[in-house]
Specification:
By secondary structure, the chain is of the alpha/beta class. It has a single domain, classed as Dihydrofolate Reductase, subunit A (3-Layer(aba) Sandwich). 20% of the residues lie in helices and 33% in strands. The protein has four helices and eleven strands, in the order βββαβαββαβαββββ. The strands form two sheets. An eight-stranded mixed sheet has the order 6-5-4-7-1-8-11-10, with helices on both faces.
């Protein structure tokens, strides 16, 4: 007689990463729009987040051009305090934690927090992030009204992914860095 030995449960962990492009002074945008046009960074964002959960605030979702809503080939999770807010083919959650839990429950290996400023701030303050993909745009924007939160650089190991020179497709030079929590 053969014994049925139960196999150990598969342990899955969801890593949580933030992805953003920021100016020299941590600028993110103005009037719910980006401050620059950098094609190579947009392509990096798409390639990195494709087939993953993307968690964003409602204002960030509103800023996405209609032709890209919801972001294709990703599970879009919108954080909203309005319990009645809904958008076709998207999940709506009341908090970042609820959005992350949705990704965990569905076995997502990597969930990306993609904005905006308030969502990034909460994620840093609540220590919800394992990694960050930050594009450092080599320019300052005095008229910015939204900023990436300050973070303790000593808590992160960082690795340069790519340098992007300014050219006809990339308005400003920048560097894309991958940060991992120590």
């Amino acid at each position: 007689m053969e014994e049925n030995t139960p196999s150990a449960p598969e342990i899955t962990t969801t890593r949580v990463a933030m992805i953003a492009a920021i100016g020299r002074n941590r600028e993110l945008g103005k009037n719910n729009e980006l401050l620059w046009h950098i094609n190579e960074d947009m392509q990096f964002f798409k390639d990195t987040t494709i087939d993953h959960y993307v968690i964003m605030g409602r204002k960030s979702f509103d800023s996405i051009p209609k032709k890209y809503k919801p972001l294709p080939n990703r599970v879009n999770v919108i954080i909203s305090r309005n319990p009645d807010f809904m958008y076709e083919e998207c999940y709506t959650c009341a908090s970042i934690e609820e959005g992350i839990e949705l990704a965990v429950e569905n076995g997502e290996p990597m969930a990306f927090i993609i904005g905006g400023g308030e969502i990034y701030r909460q994620a840093i303050e609540k220590n919800l992030v394992d990694e960050m993909f930050l594009t450092h745009v080599d320019a300052s924007f005095a008229d910015a009204d939204t900023f990436f939160p300050a973070y303790d650089h000593l808590q992160w190991e960082k690795e340069l992914i790519r340098t992007i020179p300014a050219d006809s497709q990339n308005e400003f030079p920048c560097e894309i860095w991958h940060y991992r929590k120590k």
